[in-house]
């Protein structure tokens, strides 16, 4: 058996319209999975769907706002329609408002914590029963360097990503006995919409690259191997873990 073959599996990817989510879609379909692309921008989802289908992949799209918890049941129902199952959940949607601590409001705090921490749990909770019926499932959360250390203008974001570490452990404790493992990736600096303000500053971008052990910032393709691994049978005995994929940033 090829431990990394995802043929016959279906993955739901939130935040799939760009960045890490879009790259996860490319990696998982290349390994044989079918994907449901969930995001807010239909045009971006359509572009990615066409790219994937041109490579022979099976992909459907759903434009929806995960920030509205009242719509979550409907969103889950619509995501289940194409294949009547979700085997792999990539909780990738997120927001980073980059506010100084003095500027954070209750509204911006809730916006950040809801999308980055609340939705990953409640979305998983709604998908667990049908995974449990088959005795197998994979949940991949997205943590951050800020799960472990503080960055400027990141207090709410850092709180949400620190929470993801413990959420991942707690989800693993709750559901791994049903055959559903839950792990998180913690990316370093990759070129995405969330990090665009960083990469727009050449000096800062180079400074961050110099802080890695490898000597460069990440390329989105660097995420592929870990994504497929955590989504596949190859990681069946790994759960509750957060794996840093940061070029050694946290090692120095």
Task: Describe what you observe in this structure.
With 252 residues, this protein is an alpha/beta fold. It has a single domain (10-190, 219-247), classed as Rossmann fold (3-Layer(aba) Sandwich), CATH 3.40.50.720. Helix content is 42%, strand content 15%. It has eight helices and seven strands, in the order E-H-E-H-E-H-E-H-E-H-E-H-H-H-E. It has helices at residues 19-30, 42-54, 72-80, 106-134, 155-175, 196-199, 202-210, 224-231, and strands at residues 10-14, 34-39, 59-63, 88-91, 137-142, 180-187, 242-245. The protein has a seven-stranded parallel sheet, with helices on both faces. Helix 5 (155-175) links the parallel strand 5 and strand 6. Helix 1 packs across helix 8 and helix 4 (106-134) runs parallel beside helix 5 (155-175). The chain is globular and about 45 Å long. The model has no long low-confidence stretch (mean pLDDT 95).
The CATH topology comes to Rossmann fold
Roughly what percent helix?
40-55%
Shape: globular
Main sheet properties? 7 strands, parallel
Number of DSSP-assigned strands? 7
Unreliably modeled segments: none
Using only C-alpha atoms, the radius of gyration works out to 17 Å
Count of individual helical segments: 8
Structural class: alpha/beta
CATH homologous superfamily placement? NAD(P)-binding Rossmann-like Domain
CATH class: Alpha Beta
Spatially, the strands of the biggest sheet line up as 3-2-1-4-5-6-7
EC number: 1.1.1.69
Family: Belongs to the short-chain dehydrogenases/reductases (SDR) family.
InterPro entries: KR_dom, NAD(P)-bd_dom_sf, Sc_DH/Rdtase_CS, SDR_fam
Protein name: Gluconate 5-dehydrogenase
